[in-house]
């Protein structure tokens, strides 16, 4: 009887052990996935930045050196067009939960245009074509409110973009607008990299904790073998 | 009287026409561009340019080079050649040569005013000004708060004074006002230059009217495309177009209401000289438009040298050199950014 109880206890320990091993493997897979995403995002960032710098050079070539140079940057104090929110990790921290949130094109005169994740989703819906700067004028300025909300946000975003470029003039080349979009995409990618890195470290910590767990793992395996026998 | 310039032109202009034709022969050739496009870094570019007329201007520049340094030194060469021609010129050629620089003067004025608005140091701004557009009281521009003061304190004694009559207001200077001021001044300058060339008559009037009309039309297209999606109204846009050129007046009326690049294409394709430009671009695309316009401009500028005894060769030479400097800037940027595959996106060959 006692032997049967010992065997059932060993069996439950084995099941628990197998469950833990499954969880470890899941964490390892998650870690490798996040590492792969991290490296992919880095490549993407590199190519986006290269494209942005070339587009900026192309805009200088098109508009002239006197119209695009560092001496035109505005040194007056002004509110940030884009902010980054860093959330503290909770005790019940869930893997994959981003720590960093981008709040794009939020200025003091436009407090409704924020909420980073929403904006990132919306901006991703705007396809970046060969001429992303070619926006139709707001032909919907008099439309009903039912279809106006996304377009109002879109107009606000376009206005904020134009406002940030206004230091180079109000009639700027489409190439400069294209460069702006590239750097904006690069900024979003940077935030994704930060979040992915956070996820990576978190799963790495979990794996380390699990590997540094109770030292009678070998004993458990022996018991399992006995049970199997 | 048109056709008799051969009798009298060389008396005053013969020496300088020979000089400018000699300078024209010094423009970079196809083999020069091939060598430059294969450079691995900016020091290689400097080495290749040392064998050209730019050599003396770059030889003392220390490494590591920057693309802006290459552009500045190449521009100094152009400035030296221009100053030599200006000091040797008599009227009306000297006035003609001065007209060529008014565009740079306008750019410098706008640079100083914009930089001052952004609280930048005046000395920093002066270093970025184009040397061909400098004048004595340019630093005083930083004091002006609105266009009326700009005119009264500084510009009244400059050649740009007559161009200010259309844009003098007491409104404080801001980004939109400055942009409108820039384009209004440039419009007035082009029209004035056009009238001056018409008064000169002969081959100068004929060739320069073609070149300036092309410039006015290109400006109209660029203003249209750059203002799509901005706060500039259609009326304001229409006011920035010049009152001459192939597109004046009906093309301008149509361009003023365009809302995207395809509508602009639809307007321009009605004019045969511009059909070939827009034929090079696919629908919805505008990235290659600049290069297409530059190529057409270079073609027309090179044709100016086919005829003798006129002043348009001076204008053509200055523009061709500026194009060459733009080419060098683009090649340098592509080499510095390790994007040599994109070199041919914007280089316009001149030969």
Automatic annotation (TrEMBL), chain A:
**Per the record, which residues fall in region Disordered?**
1-26, 123-146
Check the record and name the InterPro entries matching this protein.
Answer: Vma22/CCDC115
Q: Which GO terms describe its molecular function?
A: unfolded protein binding
User: Which biological process annotations from GO are given for this protein?
Assistant: vacuolar proton-transporting V-type ATPase complex assembly
Q: Which Pfam families match?
A: Vma22_CCDC115
Domain of life of the organism in this record? Answer: Eukaryota
In terms of PANTHER family, this protein maps to: COILED-COIL DOMAIN-CONTAINING PROTEIN 115 (PTHR31996)
Please report the name of this protein according to its UniProt entry: Vacuolar ATPase assembly protein VMA22
Species assigned in the record: Quercus lobata (Valley oak)
List the gene name: LOC115974667
From TrEMBL, chain B:
Identify its membrane topology class: Peripheral membrane protein
User: Where located?
Assistant: Vacuole membrane
Is the keyword Endoplasmic reticulum in the record?
A: no
**Principal localization?**
membrane
One Pfam family name is: vATP-synt_AC39
**Keywords recorded for this protein, A-Z:** Hydrogen ion transport, Ion transport, Transport
Q: Name one GO cellular component term.
A: vacuolar membrane
Matching entries from SUPFAM superfamilies are given as: V-type ATP synthase subunit C
Output the superkingdom of the source species.
Eukaryota
A GO MF term: proton-transporting ATPase activity, rotational mechanism
Subunit composition and interactions: V-ATPase is a heteromultimeric enzyme composed of a peripheral catalytic V1 complex (components A to H) attached to an integral membrane V0 proton pore complex (components: a, c, c'', d and e). V-ATPase is a heteromultimeric enzyme made up of two complexes: the ATP-hydrolytic V1 complex and the proton translocation V0 complex.
Give the protein's biological function. Subunit of the integral membrane V0 complex of vacuolar ATPase. Vacuolar ATPase is responsible for acidifying a variety of intracellular compartments in eukaryotic cells, thus providing most of the energy required for transport processes in the vacuolar system.
Protein family membership: Belongs to the V-ATPase V0D/AC39 subunit family.
Protein's UniProt name? V-type proton ATPase subunit
Native organism is Quercus lobata
């Amino acid at each position: 009887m006692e032997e049967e109880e010992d065997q059932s206890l060993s069996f439950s320990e084995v099941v628990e052990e197998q469950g833990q091993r499954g969880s470890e493997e899941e964490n390892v897979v998650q870690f490798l996935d996040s590492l792969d995403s991290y490296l992919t995002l880095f490549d993407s960032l590199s190519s986006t930045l290269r494209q942005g710098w070339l587009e900026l050079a192309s805009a200088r070539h098109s508009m002239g050196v006197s119209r695009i140079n560092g001496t035109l940057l505005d040194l007056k104090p002004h509110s940030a067009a884009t902010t980054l929110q860093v959330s503290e990790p909770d005790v019940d921290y869930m893997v994959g939960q981003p720590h960093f949130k981008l709040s794009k094109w939020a200025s003091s005169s436009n407090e409704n245009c924020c909420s980073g994740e929403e904006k990132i989703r919306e901006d991703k819906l705007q396809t970046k074509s060969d001429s992303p700067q070619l926006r139709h004028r707001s032909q919907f300025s008099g439309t009903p409110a039912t279809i106006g909300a996304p377009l109002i946000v879109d107009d606000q975003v376009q206005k904020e973009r134009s406002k940030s470029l206004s230091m180079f003039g109000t009639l700027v080349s489409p190439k400069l607008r294209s460069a702006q979009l590239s750097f904006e995409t690069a900024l979003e990618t940077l935030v994704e990299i930060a979040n992915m890195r956070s996820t990576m470290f978190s799963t790495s910590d979990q794996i380390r904790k699990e590997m540094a767990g109770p030292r009678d793992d070998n004993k458990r395996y022996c018991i399992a073998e006995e049970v199997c026998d | 009287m048109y056709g008799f310039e051969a009798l009298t032109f060389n008396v005053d202009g013969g020496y300088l026409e020979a000089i400018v034709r000699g300078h024209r022969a010094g423009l970079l050739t196809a083999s020069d561009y091939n060598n430059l496009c294969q450079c691995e870094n900016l020091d290689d570019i400097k080495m290749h340019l040392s064998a050209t007329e730019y050599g003396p201007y770059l030889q003392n520049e220390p490494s590591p080079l920057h693309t802006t340094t290459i552009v500045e030194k190449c521009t100094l060469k152009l400035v030296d050649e221009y100053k030599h021609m200006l000091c040797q010129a008599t009227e009306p050629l000297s006035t003609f040569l001065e007209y060529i620089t008014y565009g740079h003067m306008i750019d410098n004025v706008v640079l100083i005013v914009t930089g001052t608005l952004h609280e930048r140091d005046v000395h920093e701004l002066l270093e970025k000004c184009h040397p061909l557009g400098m004048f004595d009281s340019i630093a005083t521009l930083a004091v002006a708060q609105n266009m009326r003061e700009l005119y009264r304190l500084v510009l009244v004694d400059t050649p740009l004074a007559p161009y200010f009559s259309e844009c003098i207001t007491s409104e404080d200077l801001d980004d939109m006002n400055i942009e409108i001021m820039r384009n209004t001044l440039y419009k007035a300058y082009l029209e004035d230059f056009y009238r001056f060339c018409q008064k000169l008559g002969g081959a100068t009037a004929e060739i320069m009217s073609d070149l300036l009309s092309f410039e006015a039309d290109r400006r109209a297209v660029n203003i249209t495309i750059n203002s799509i999606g901005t706060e500039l109204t259609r009326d304001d846009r229409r006011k920035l177009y010049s009152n001459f050129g192939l597109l004046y007046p009906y093309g301008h009326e149509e361009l003023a209401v365009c809302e995207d690049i395809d509508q602009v294409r639809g307007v321009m394709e009605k004019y045969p000289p511009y059909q070939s430009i827009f034929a090079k671009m696919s629908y919805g695309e505008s990235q290659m438009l600049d290069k297409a316009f530059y190529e057409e401009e270079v073609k027309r500028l090179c044709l100016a040298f086919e005829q003798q005894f006129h002043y348009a060769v001076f204008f053509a030479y200055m523009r061709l050199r500026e194009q060459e400097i733009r080419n060098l800037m683009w090649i340098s940027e592509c080499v510095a950014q390790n994007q040599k595959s994109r070199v041919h996106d914007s280089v316009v060959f001149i030969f």
